[in-house]
Design a protein that fits this description.
This protein is mainly alpha-helical. Helices cover 62% and strands 4% of the residues. The protein has a single domain, classed as Four Helix Bundle (Hemerythrin (Met), subunit A) (Up-down Bundle), CATH 1.20.120. It is built from six helices and two strands. The relative contact order is 0.16.
């Protein structure tokens, strides 16, 4: 029979395994995007930005180093609270991973590393794009918060809140300028669906 310490170790291992597994899946999906994007297509507009896959990868590495070095880790001595936080973190990681992969699949060849408008561009508003206008960015936010809960790391929470989310809003705004100029019904989509976070319909169709 397993001892309480062994059970605790097993539960921690199972919960925290969601972090490397989901991260690996998302990184594999990113590589697939790059492979598919190598096909030459006519471009109508492009707005290069420092916020791209490379800078997002740098943030991934920073989060890994914070967790690996236990910088910002807070010990939680109450087992039930610890497991509840870790379980919620695992749910965020898994949910974020699923949304990210589905979003990339829905985008198909619309995806680009830099904000790009192709001549063959289509406006995707269904599936996970009915949850937020930028589900790929939203899902990464959820995954980072999930990792913060899994490893009880307040530094990851702060970095996600004050660095990653503003960067995603900046990148999303660049993309939306291109899409608004291309698609007449994009404004209606903005009024229905939140930029990074799901929302209920707002009176007057406020754009956030």
């Amino acid at each position: 029979m397993a001892t309480p310490i062994e059970v605790t170790t097993i539960v921690d291992f199972v919960l925290r395994s969601t972090s490397p597994i989901t991260t690996t899946i998302v990184l594999a999906a990113v590589v697939r995007n790059f492979v598919l994007s190598q096909k030459s297509r006519p471009v109508l507009g492009r707005s290069p930005s420092v916020v791209a896959t490379g800078s997002m990868m740098a943030f991934f590495i920073a989060v890994y180093l914070l967790i690996k070095g236990h910088a910002g880790t807070v010990p939680i001595l109450m087992p039930h609270l610890r497991y509840a936080l870790e379980a919620f973190g695992a749910v965020l990681m898994i949910g974020g991973c699923v949304v990210n992969v589905l979003g990339r699949y829905s985008l198909g060849q619309n995806w680009a590393d830099q904000a790009t408008l192709y001549s063959s561009q289509t406006l995707v508003t269904s599936g996970v794009f009915a949850i937020t206008r930028h589900p790929l960015y939203s899902s990464l936010v959820w995954m980072f918060y999930g990792s913060a809960l899994l490893y009880h790391n307040y530094a990851v929470t702060l970095a996600t809140t004050f660095i990653f989310i503003p960067a995603m809003y900046y990148r999303a705004a660049i993309e939306e300028r291109l899409l608004s100029a291309r698609f007449d019904d994009y404004r209606s989509y903005q009024n229905r669906v939140g930029r990074l976070f799901p929302r209920l319909a707002l009176r007057g169709g406020q754009n956030q």
